[in-house]
Each structure stands twice: as C-alpha cells, then as structure tokens.
Amino acid sequence: MHSNGMARRILTVTAASATVALALSACASGGSTGDAATNRGPITIWYSNNETEIAWGKQMVEAWNAENPDEKVKAQEIPAGKSSEEVIGAAITAGNAPCLVFNTAPVAVPQFEKQGGLVDLSSFEDGAAYIEERSGDTAAQYQGADGKYFQMPWKSNPVMIFYNKDMFTAAGLDAENPQLATYDEFLATSRTLVESGAAPNAIYPAPTSQFFQSWFDFYPLYAAETGGTQLIEDGEATFNAEDGAKVAEFWKTLYAEGLAGKEQYQGDSFADGQAAMSIVGPWAVSVYKDAVNWGAVPVPTSEGTPVEETYTFSDAKNVGMFTACENQATAWDVLKFATSEEQDGQLLELTGQMPLRETLPTVYPEYFAANPAYEQFGDQASRMVEVPNVSSSVAAWQAFRDAYTKSVITGEGDIPDALDSAAEKINALIAKP
Amino acid sequence: MSLSTQSRTVAGRSTTPPGGEPRRKRQLLGKNPFGLLLSAPYLIFVLAVFAYPLVFAFWMSFHDYFFAAPGVDVDRPFVGLDNFREVLADPAIIRSFGNVGIFLLINVPLTVVLSLVLATALNKAVRFRTFLRVAYYVPYVTASVAVVGVWIFLFSGNGLVNQILGPLAPDPAWLINENWAMPTIAIFVTWKGLGFFILLYLAALQNVSEELYEAASTDGAGKIRSFFSVTVPGVRPATVLVLLLSTVTGANLFTEPYLLTGGGGPNGASSSPVLMMYQRGIEQGSPDSAAAIGVILVIGVLILAFVQRKLAGGDES
To answer: What is the ipTM of this complex?
Structure first.
C-alpha cells in the first residue's frame, strides 16, 4: 500500500471520527438559558433509592402533578454510582443535572457550588426567608461563607447510641437504664458486655479509611463533648484541643482493649449480633424493628451531659437546585411544596427521618405521641452539628480520617500530636483560594 | 528506498488525474472504502476513550483545573509543575507509589511463573482438563466485589486461613496488618487474574512443536530440562505479553485497596496511585492533582515496560 494514500485515508477516517465525536459531545452538553430563573414548565427531580424515601417521593410528585398539570415533575432515583455525590458531580459537568436532588450531602455542597452547578436559593425573592423560617437557627449551619444558601436544609438523622437490650440483659446489665452517659460508664459497660461473652464487640463503627466514617465515631462524640462545636469554625480546625483529645482517647481505649472491632465488617454488625451497640439515626428504627430488641440513648461525654443538653451529628441530607435546570421558578415552587408542613409530615410518617424544621415535636405532636420510639430523635433534632460548610471539605475530612485511623484505631503515636498535625494540614487546605 | 520511490511516483501521478473526481475519491478513501467504515468505530473508540483523555489529562496536570458546569466562566491558569510538586510533596502519595512497587514485585513474577507452570500442566493433563481450565478461569470472570467478600471472610482474624495457621497467624490479621495488607492484595490479584494468563500461555503452548520435545527427549533431557530448554524459550513472546499486561493492570490497582482494605488501609499501607487519583480527582474535586499522579504513573509504567521488553527479549517477539 502506498504510504501517502494510507496517511490520507487515516486522516479522512480520523476527521470523520472527530466530527462524530464532536457531534456526540454537542448532544451531551447543555445548560440553562438566561431566563431559567423565571421560567416555568416541566422539571426532573432525583431522590434517594431507599424504599421509604421512594415512597415519600412518589406521593409528593403525585400530589404536585395533580394540581400542576402544566408544570409536571418527572422523578427518578439517583443513578447508580460509587456514591450519589460522584453521580451528581458528573451530571453537573455534563450539564445534565436534574432540577432538584433530594439527597444532596452537605459535605459536597461547597464543591458543587465551586463547579457552578448549584443555584443560590437566596436569589429567589423569598428564598432566605423561607429557609430561615422553616429551619430556624439550624439554617445558619447550611449557609455559605457569604451568607448564601446553595442548599435547602431538608432532613436529618441525628445519631444516637442504639443498644441491644437482650445482650445487655445477658451480660447482667440493666437494659432499661443502661450506664452509658460518661466515658467511664461506657467503658465499664463495654467491658462487661465483652467479658461476659454476651457480645463479641461492644460497638463496631466502620474502622475503614473513607473520609465520611468519622461522622459515625469521632464527630458525634466531639459535638457532644464541646456542646455543639463543628470540626472547623471560623476557618480553623477546632479539634486539636483538650475536648478533641478526650474523645480520641476514649475511642483509642475501646480499640486497644478489643471492645471495638478493628476489622472491616461485611454487613450490619448490630443487626447481625456482632456488636451490642451502634451509632445510628432514626432511619434505623424501622430497619431494626423486628431484628433487634433495641433501646437508644444520647452519645456519651467525658463527664456525662444531661440528655436535654447533649449535641450530636445531624447526618442530614438536603436539597440542591442545579443550574442546568431550565425551569427554576417551577423548581423553587416544587421545593417549597416538598418541604411544606404537610409534606414534612409525610416524610416523618413514611421514613421516620426528621425534617429540618424548628421545634419538630410541637409541630407534629400526634406523630410523636403515636410513635414514642421517635420522640427522643425529635428532641435530639434540636441539638445537632453539621459538617462544616467550607471549601475542600472532603479533603479536610480525609486528612482527619487518616490521622484518626493511625493514632486511634491502630493506636500508633501520640494523639495530641496526630490531631495537631491533621489540624495543620486542614488549616492549609481551607486557606487555599 | 523503494517504498519512498513508489510513493513519489504515486504522488506524482496524482497531480495529473486522468480519471477526475472518482479517482480523487479513490485516492482519498482507498480501494475498499467499506473497510474504512468498518475500522472507524474502533478508531473512534481509541480516540475518545484513550487518546483524548490521555492528552487532556496531560494538559490538566499543568493547569489549575476543576470540573465545572457547561457555560460557567472558569479561569484555568497554567501552573507549570505546581501540581507535580504538590503531589510529590505528599507522603501519602509517595507511599502509594511505593505500595504499588511492592505489589508489582510480588504480583508480576508470581503471575508469570504460576500461569506458565499451570498452563504447562493443564496442557499435559488428560483427565478433568476442561474442568480444570474452567476452574482457573472462573475467578477471572467473577466480579471483584463478590470475590472480595469471600477473601475478607477468609483472611479476617477469625477466618479460615488464620484457623488453619493457628499460632502462626499474623497479629493483627492480614488485611489490617501494615506488613501483610499489600502482599495479601498481591496474592488476591494474582489468583484472580491467573485464569486469563493461563489462557494466553495455553494458546502459546500450541505453537511449540512437539518435535522439539521429542528431540530434547532423544538428547536425554528430562521433563524439567525440557521445560526450561523448550517450553520457556518457546513461549517467550507470550511471556513478554504476560509481563506487560500484568504490569499495566497491576499499576492500575484500585478495586482491591478500595474494597478489600477499606480505602487503602491500614494507615495507607495498601493505598495505590489510582486510589489516590480517585480520592483527589473525584471525591475531593482536584482533578489537576489527580492528573499529575496519573502522568507520573504512565511514565513509570512506560519505563517499566521498556525495561521488561529489553530484559525479556521483546524484540524477538
């Protein structure tokens, strides 16, 4: 074959291929028009893929569509991926994010905002007022540094200590009044549970290295110990002080004495009877209903804090409105409809998760009277700490987790040194423009 | 020389086309335009999935880059080697490269030796041949996620392996032991991929002439001598391929540290460069740093491949 002819043909095919590729990429890209903020019309929303939230989402969409035939909502579960945040991040980049995602993790919001993917909800005339009226003081934790709201605080799962009453009884402990308020009590109870053979582990938070795992071991106890301090406040890490060290030492003791599992567990250690306690939110009430005879108490503090003053981690999921949305006026109305008192009541009823609404127990007294198991979660929902709303949030949590797994779970090195070193790294990350 | 002369001749002719339009079309599309059509999908695939991302990643690694929504005005300044300096100053990333080095040192030789020995044995096996071939191939086609669950069970503190080893079992257990986590992953990956490499060797063994074995036997060579003097040189091209493929796939290690050791644990002892790329690029929204790690990895793999080709006699293949 002649080389010139061959080269020309390769060039031809390459050019043709590039044209097709460009055409395909052109099809994939999109974006909002200039009038998107005031446009009305059909919109698409995504919600979580768990059974109870699907049920809530379906009835909400049905109720909206029945009254708004010209602004219909099309709903689907968040497409599968390693995590919802990755899928949403990819959708923002591709320009095909839906109008609303009813499962936006607060930790990812600064990143989505940086990507230019989120609509500032304060830009709607009644945006900030609506959010603040519904969520009260809690709303402040979801504001960006400039006071804007790039997320609608939606629902929380304030985490508490779930304990297995049968295991406590088998260990000779008082299952109705468990001694778990102070670190000393918690450790003594844990030792009894394991030494008696009633439970293989007292507690089994995931000992793995993913950035978010600290939300279910260190952070709830840190929130409680400090009376509601976030991991980062005013642009600086807060945990490298006495309170942070106390919490870390507490966990280190649990691991060092073999009271908490150090190996990754495949499954739910609490449901499987591998641990007598677990740190989870109210979503677990319906899950453990038939599997475990459970009770719940607030997370412990070093000296024991009264229940009504104990803080915890919120494990909240919010709603984000995305800039790819072409009918943002409709999306804002749907968002208000979905977070109305009626729909929040439906959310509580169908999922057991706590709407991020001020004075929850007084808004839905009938629900809490009929479902006493949820009452303490409703009360706990007024004392919650969110992940800090800072740029490089995920990187900061990863830096913290790396230091934590080494100094606490593996037990290598000095805890104050490890916390100082993690704080230094985190402060540098936050200071980055 | 003759080729260039021919080319010039053809090029010379093309300046005075007696046939006009059809001739030009033929010169542009060749004798078989349909062939071009058939090859286009693969070319598009290579361009879109391999070439474009590679060039783009290289570009990204020299810029302050993050993924943004279409239409958003983002400044992406050229930052020179800043991203490379940043990742190379991070002990966790340096460690991940060291980890994958340990992984390759265990995985690649083990893969080559085991797959060749087992392929040779399978080639000779008469009974249960099909069953054995399928048995080795099953782990390769089974999803990692499913197999990882079984290995966590096997290598946990109370797992089957430790029960068999008794007092010899390491403490802490394999997957949470800083010294054993990476070797355990290397053994897992070797076991899982063995079926594919055995298949490559089995194919190569069909090309080794039976007469060579007969001649070796006549010269008094035993089975072991025949293996080293006939089989090993006879499958050298396949060995180069196995070396190359196991190095490339090994350097891209991700699923196992992500799932088997819960995100590169314990304390980063099993983290890999690709896991760090995932953390930086996808989870933390810094694809520029992730691209820098990727470029360093590509260069490292290319150097390794070059050395392997030189040492294993790839030129002869």
So the answer is: 0.85
- Mean pLDDT in residue range B297-317: 83
Q: How far is A9 from chain B (nearest CA, A)?
A: 5
Closest CA to A68 of A43, A37, A36, A39: A43
Percent share of chain A, pLDDT over 90: 83
Mean pLDDT of B120-142: 86
Q: Do A12 and B10 touch (CB under 8 A)?
A: no
User: Which chain A residues are Cβ-neighbours of B40 within 8 angstroms?
Assistant: 13, 16-17
**B160 has a pLDDT exceeding 80:** yes
And the tokens for A392? 């490089």
From chain A, the residues in CB contact with B178 under 8 A are: 410
Q: With an 8 Å Cβ cutoff, is A33 touching chain B?
A: no
Q: Is the pLDDT of residue B16 over 70?
A: no
Both structure tokens of B15 = 């300046």
Answer whether A89 sits within 8 Å of B74, measured CB to CB: no
**Architecture of the domain delimited by B84-312:** Orthogonal Bundle (1.10)
Comparing CA positions, the residue from A204, A206, A304 lying closest to residue A258 is: A204
Low-confidence residues of chain A: pLDDT under 70:
1-34
SS3 assignment, position B277: helix
Smallest Cα–Cα separation from A431: which of A230, A211, A237?
A: A237
Residue A102 backbone dihedrals phi, psi, to 5 degrees: -90, 55
pTM of the model as a whole: 0.87
Residue A317: which residues within 8 A CB-CB, separation 6 or more?
Answer: A48, A102, A103, A104, A105, A106, A154, A155
- Region B67-89: what's the mean pLDDT? 93
Model confidence at B94, pLDDT cuts 50, 70, 90, reads very high
Residues of A in contact with B66 (CB under 8 A): 114-115
- Which residues in chain B are contacts of A12 at CB distance < 8 A? 28-29, 36
Contact A380, A160 (CB under 8 A): yes
CB proximity A115 to B under 8 Å: yes
Residue B36 vs residue B174, higher pLDDT: B174
Cβ atoms within 10 A of the Cβ of A342, count? 10
Nearest partner of B52 among A88, A25, A1, judged by Cα: A25
* Inter-chain CB proximity A92 and B67 less than 8 Å: yes
Helix boundaries (H) for chain B: 2-14, 21-29, 33-45, 52-60, 82-88, 91-124, 129-141, 144-155, 160-165, 181-205, 210-218, 223-226, 232-234, 236-251, 255-259, 273-277, 287-312
Q: Count other C-beta atoms under 10 Å from residue A169's C-beta.
A: 14
